[in-house]
Amino acid sequence: MFYGLLFYTAPETRDLFPVAMGVQRSRFLQALIHVLQTVDRPDDVAIFLRQLGRDHRKFGVLAKHYEVVGDALLRAMAEVSGPRWTPQIEHAWRDAYDFVATIMRDAAESERGPAVWMARITHHQRLLDDLAVVRAQTSVPIPYAPGQYLSIEIPQRPRMWRSLSPANAPDSDGIVEFHVRAVPEGWVSRAIVAHSNVGDVWRIGPPMGQLTLAPQSERDLLMVVGGTGLSPALAILEELVNTRSTRRVGLFYGGRDVADLYAIDRLRALSRQHPWLTVIPVVEHGDEPGDAEVGTLAEVVSRYGAWADRETMISGSPDMVRATVSAMLEAGTPLIRIHYDPFTAG
Ligand SMILES: Cc1cc2nc3c(=O)[nH]c(=O)nc-3n(C[C@H](O)[C@H](O)[C@H](O)COP(=O)(O)OP(=O)(O)OC[C@H]3O[C@@H](n4cnc5c(N)ncnc54)[C@H](O)[C@@H]3O)c2cc1C
Ligand code: HEM
């Protein structure tokens, strides 16, 4: 109803959106839920909304659109709520929307960096049937922090922006490495794994996310990563190496089976070079697990206790992140020590 009202009252906004809108619909709702859930942590909310506002420039969103979107949203909510939509509630929602929209709009207007970077694919290697490592190069390096993610658009799927996490720390040559898993029925991921080519030009949006190395903390680290959720961990490990850090890192690296752990040799080599890094492979299926632990990441990590003295970062599919956060909270890990990006918790 919201989008119907928006496109009816402001038809020019329809062209900003892709034809198939399932993904945007769920992201918009998730963003609102995330703001509501974290509204009592104003600093985090403001960082999130400023990033989102800067990111919206790449869609062609202008300051004037915030008003028409807010009107359509409130009218749709009033329509759906019926008699439960009181003036008091309307007032509260109007305030909430204005709070969100003002931060996003101001961040977009004051940003001097580009809305998008053009990146040329320099390397494409299919490591597994459903997984590829892709390197893209920009003429000016994208100023992301290790652990952040970027949203990308590929020429094969115009206007379908998707988030990917760089697997390296920012590089002065402007090279960003991505690890991409093709999900069944996935529009963009399958095209990247099967059809992207060296020479393709991708558009990349500004950095987002707060899953960076907590620089204000000296605590040791725990990384719990599944599949391509390894990427932000690799970027952070590279930063730790570059800064000669001595913080201890425990890395639980999970996959469906041993063959799925595509980067295990690279991690083992890193751990031999840097004794502060301990890698624990985890597989869900027990046939020939080798030295891997068997179980879900949530089960295996919490078997070791609460890890209360560590900063913990969790990265992977929404289901994996949700299960791991729950298991760790139950094991006694303080919430304040657990870090993950909002959308990855689904
Ligand atoms: C912060 C963040 C960082 C990310 N980093 C990476 C990364 O480094 N590498 C990477 O490969 N992906 C990453 N993703 C996931 C990526 O953004 C896409 O969601 C994923 O590639 C699917 O896009 P698609 O267009 O192929 O699928 P869509 O066409 O959007 O979806 C097709 C179907 O697949 C389902 N689906 C979507 N995502 C998944 C999933 N992860 N597992 C199972 N089913 C799914 C959908 O519900 C839908 O039914 C990240 C996501 C977020 C939010
Ligand atoms: C309260 C204000 C808003 C919130 C919380 C919000 C939230 C979001 C989120 C979370 C995404 C997905 C981001 C991504 O995948 O990179 C998104 C995408 C998008 N938003 Fe917004 N948005 C807001 C306002 C607006 C406005 C005013 C417009 C202008 C019409 C707009 C247009 C779009 C478009 C075109 C997309 C891309 C859709 C797609 O890729 O499927 N948004 N928005």
UniProtKB/TrEMBL annotation:
Keywords: 2Fe-2S, Heme, Iron, Iron-sulfur, Metal-binding, NAD, NADP, Oxygen transport, Transport. Its cofactor is FAD; heme b. CDD domains: Mb-like_oxidoreductase, O2ase_reductase_like. Gene3D superfamilies: Globins, Nucleotide-binding domain of ferredoxin-NADP reductase (FNR) module, Translation factors. Residues 114-214 form the FAD-binding FR-type domain. It catalyses: 2 nitric oxide + NADH + 2 O2 = 2 nitrate + NAD(+) + H(+); 2 nitric oxide + NADPH + 2 O2 = 2 nitrate + NADP(+) + H(+). Its EC number is 1.14.12.17. Residues 1-109 form the Globin domain. It comes from the Bacteria. Belongs to the globin family. In the C-terminal section; belongs to the flavoprotein pyridine nucleotide cytochrome reductase family. This is nitric oxide dioxygenase.
